[in-house]
Records
---
Amino acid sequence: MLEQDSKLIIADALGSARNRIESHNRIAVSISGGSDSDTVLDIIKKCKTEKDIFFINFNTGLEYQATKDHLKYLENKYKIKIETIRPEKPVPLCVKQYGEPFLNKRASEMIMRLQRHNFTWEDKSFEELYKQYPNCKSALRWWCNCYDSYSLNISNNKFLKEFLIEYPPEFQISNLCCHYAKKVVAAEFNKSHNIDLVVNGIRKAEGGIRSVSYKSCFTPAKDKKKCDVYRPIFWFTDDIKRQYELENNIVHSKCYTEYGLKRTGCTGCPYGKNFEFELMVLQKYEPKLYKAAANVFKNSYEYTRQYRKYVKLKNNNGNVQLSLF
Ligand code: SF4
């Protein structure tokens, strides 16, 4: 992309941020302490508005000390107060009550639904299985690859179906920690503070189900009870983001600059493709958190390792004989 194009996209983002802020009254800006939220915060502060803006951070109960330190740095740099919102159920408690996240949101949710119906992980047609499990339609459609969109089917994760059939999970899997530690608290905050615009740092270029679910940087509220959602850096590629950071002297948390992480968020989340690296980093820099994550997500880490081994062997046409746990 030409530098000129990047400049236009950045100028566009700044202009549209100003317009979005000025056309709303009570705005909640989500500050995770990650690199995307650093850029969003800088853009919002450049809007120099008189509107009520709440800067909020959702502490899920598994946060890096480096993230907490960075939030303090941001408060000092921009002279703002970042309100920490604690969940009713932090991640370790959610995991204990509902199960561990495994692989990604979609797979965790569908496996959770199947487990609730005591599914026996069989390779049968949708019609046959639907007769056996009549209250589990959407998860069975995932299992049988019935969705039109490839990303909604189990085949989106190579050999996952074969793996689950050969090695069914012997622990509870669930996507509910995100729901209880993030979604519910965010909805409660928006309601109690009469928020009409939520601002977050989702970018199209980050990929994954989070970004592909959106078509543009703005989503109007579906009804009066919901808020509009605005994503100022939705169109920023990695290069544009880097350019913005350089031009605006953006400093990221130690998670990036010292630990070498590519993402932040809940410590050691098993959804992370590089969770093994993250665990090494944790052991070195934040050993207490390492112990916590290793304990909370123990089964999921082990199961993911076995799944990855399985995929590798299958890819090499090898005989797969794993000893699980
Ligand atoms: S990011 Fe991972 S650990 Fe954190 S709430 Fe979501 S699934 Fe759970």
---
Amino acid sequence: MSETSTNVMTVRGLTKSYGATSVLQGVEFSVARGEVHALLGGNGAGKSTMIKIITGAVSKNDGDIRFFDEDGRERSETEGRAKVAVVHQELALLPHLTVAENIALPNHRKGMGLFRRTAAAREAFESLRMIDQGFAATCLHRPVGSLSLHEGQMVEIARALSSGAELILLDEPTANLTALETERLFTVLRKLTGENGLSVVFVSHRMKEIRQIANVCTIIRDGRTVVDRQAINELSDVAIIEKMGQVTASHAVERTRLSAVTFDASSATNTLTIQEQGFKLELRPGTILGVAGAPAGPAMLIDGLTGAARSKRWTVARAGWPDRLQSPRQAARLGAGYITGDRAHKGVLHSLPIIDNVMASRRVVRGAAIAGGSEGAECLDLLKALKVRAASVWDLPNTLSGGTQQKLLIARWLGVPSRLLVLEEPTRGVDIGTKREIYQLIRQMAASGTIIVWWSTENVELLEVCSRVVAFDTEGRCAGVLAQADFSEEKLVTLTGMAA
Ligand SMILES: Nc1ncnc2c1ncn2[C@@H]1O[C@H](COP(=O)(O)OP(=O)(O)OP(=O)(O)O)[C@@H](O)[C@H]1O
Ligand SMILES: [Mg+2]
């Protein structure tokens, strides 16, 4: 596709370096009016950096960004940027303000008298209602700090939708959403692009979604445009993945030094029993239990399994364990590992270098906090296994891309001998190629005797990797358990009440 006079924005020859690290090396990117444009690329390709440069959050070294009005006339940069709204990869909400106030934030320039405030609350309600009516009805006056990650994500999206922008940049907006919420978001986006001529730039690592919503794509790789505006249906999945520089065929994962824990799968002492009223699941070593559904139900189960909160609903029983885990510390000591779904707030240790982020769990499990000579080598091995390219293990995690930070959390538990590993969306933001490798690593950990409990909003990955899946409905109730023989996306969608 060639550049047309209907472009809302063009980016030409964009370059950006951080010190000696060259991130963007002449990116070309143009967005036409009324299209949903998928911006694709592996972890660290430069997508978020470009988005931040477009909004002015990060400065560029060189290149040209131009904005145009409906008649193709160029706008000034300030004028153009005022018509851009963004949902960043990590949430940017003010925790002490209410939902309505956060959504109205971009409008504060207009002045905020009482009348305006009421109108703003009404607008906030309307935009939230497009994604979730029930949530809109109850959340408007709650402080954002009291919301869950996925509720926060909806507020961010609602803010972008109600901002009156002509161009919305969505950097992995669906990473925290359930299938139903994603479907609702897509319906709204289709309506706004079709009727109002809104343009959307959509970043995601979920191929199925990308095909559902985008008409055209640009692919960047190592800071360069390798596909410049091509209709997405002209490219196969394999072609897209190859353009991103990723391997498609199943191939041997570079093995980390995974310790082979010997176990007896049939032994009752190694079995973990989880139960709530009417439901009892026995998890033998090597089980990979998928957990599907809206976050409320899974969160309660996970709290019980990690000792985070004393779940009244779930009891967790294992020989040598108390009936109820009292604290995360106790859970860790008993061999339960945990990867949080809230990477930014509960996962990454932002002020500590990469090596501390990667080695944290090992140090707790081994009871040693001293970074010995071998620790550096071990950390490098783990990073290599997950294809993390870092200039130095002593850099801070915020020098890594979002998906790469997620890999640090995974590295933390890779090969640590644990009885139980609880995963909340472990592949959130991880690119397609690396996801496959992570699935393989999780299978290896299960094969070495770890029980895996894995919550994901991406049903396809649960059905691909798990041996059983427990589904929760939208009210947080346990709706059923699927054995491998019964696996199908339709069944999961029905059980979780996620049908649109
Ligand atoms: N503040 C920084 N200092 C140094 N390097 C940085 C900084 N911010 C980003 N980078 C580097 O820039 C590159 C591009 O990062 P960016 O976040 O744009 O990737 P991305 O395409 O959004 O990846 P992801 O899919 O994981 O979100 C990465 O190699 C990252 O390490
Ligand atoms: Mg990013």
